[in-house]
Protein 1
Amino acid sequence: MTTVFVIGGARRLGAAISQGMAASGFTVGFTWHSDEARAEATATAIRQHDVRCATVRANVARPDELVNALDNLAMSVGLPDAIVVNAGVFPLPVSISNIVESDIVEAMRINTLPLITVAKWLYQKSTQDGDVRRIISIGSLGADQIWKDRLAYNVSKAALATAMKSLARSCAPRLAINSVSPGMTIMPDDPSDNDAAAPSAASIPMGRYGTPDDVVDAVRFFVTTTSYITGQTIRIDGGHNLTRTS
């Protein structure tokens, strides 16, 4: 039985990933930070698939809390075969005149550094017995597209993309580490203030916005595919990256 942990798995895309893994018959453990009611609702939805589920509250910006959460999830449902690192923030735009160092540091603490914490934890828990475990990082097109007044986000996601590739090399052959980078993904049941900044669907080659299922399919691919694939990124954006250079 495959066991998958989702870091930041209680709401929006994280909840979709958690429930998508459960729909595949996988045991699921996930962390949540502030919305206990949403975490309970997601756990209830997961258990409707007749799979085991464990949840732990954790602030991923604090490495000690994240490690404790991973330990607690492992004690509840076992060592994971795969971990999806989904927790992240998308700060509001800030002009260069108003940005401060702490804005960038905070984005890095949430968007970038948890991947390193997770990889170190899973690497130390794994052995070289041929059982390769997986990590899937949820990245962003913001790693290589430069968006006006989004310095903290662009820097944190670019660093995340580089960290994924560096970790993939350092952690092989015990771990296979890859990334899924969604484009504009609409969450109809949980809209965001950032949805207003979405590009026109007509500007996307596939003619529509992404859905949570599109992202879940890519995550499931990396969870189940050959471990010989590592250090790779799949963009889930309907080809939108092909139309932009900045």
Protein 2
Amino acid sequence: MVSFGALGCVGKTSLALDLIAQRQRALGSNLANVDTPGYVRRDIDFSQYLGGATASLETKLAQKMGPSPMFDYEQNVEINPAQELTEMQKNSILYTVATRRMSNIITQMKTVINVGK
């Protein structure tokens, strides 16, 4: 059954989905501006937010991102469309995993609600 811990999973999954969406926007912007003179490539490095130490996901995201994610700006880096598309595909896979996780959490919550009737 679902415990109150599941509610924490909803928050973590929701934050991960937000981060994935922001990264997809950044990668799309890179592709759209591949021929724009002076455009600086943007990206979000998930390892900054999700990897490492002992802090919870929410704490790390709040510390690093604030209300919106901080982008890594790469000066003097030529944008490679094939690399951007590859990164978009990887990001798409992460999105699929996160949405499946959220769907499972919602299904569990519905089960608990229906059992409680």
Protein 3
Amino acid sequence: MSTYKLVCPHCLGRMRIRTSEGTHIFLRVAYLQCTNEACGWSVRAEFEMTHEMSPSGMANPSVKLPIADIALRRAAMRSANDQPDLLDQMEMECAQ
């Protein structure tokens, strides 16, 4: 399972999502807090779906996002190559 890691820009500690609410089908508002007690920074954040990178195999006709241009898709592929493969990670965990 992939976990998005949020980092506090002040102390570089881990952030946690205290609560969140969906405000739109493509937008979620979250309230974050630094887990470092000495820091304690809290912030409001927005997570927005902005572009379609690949089509859904179960497309809902009411879901309409602009298709990402080629430069954005290539950038996503480059960053995806830096991430460990989930199947490789699962095999490593099962071998232990």
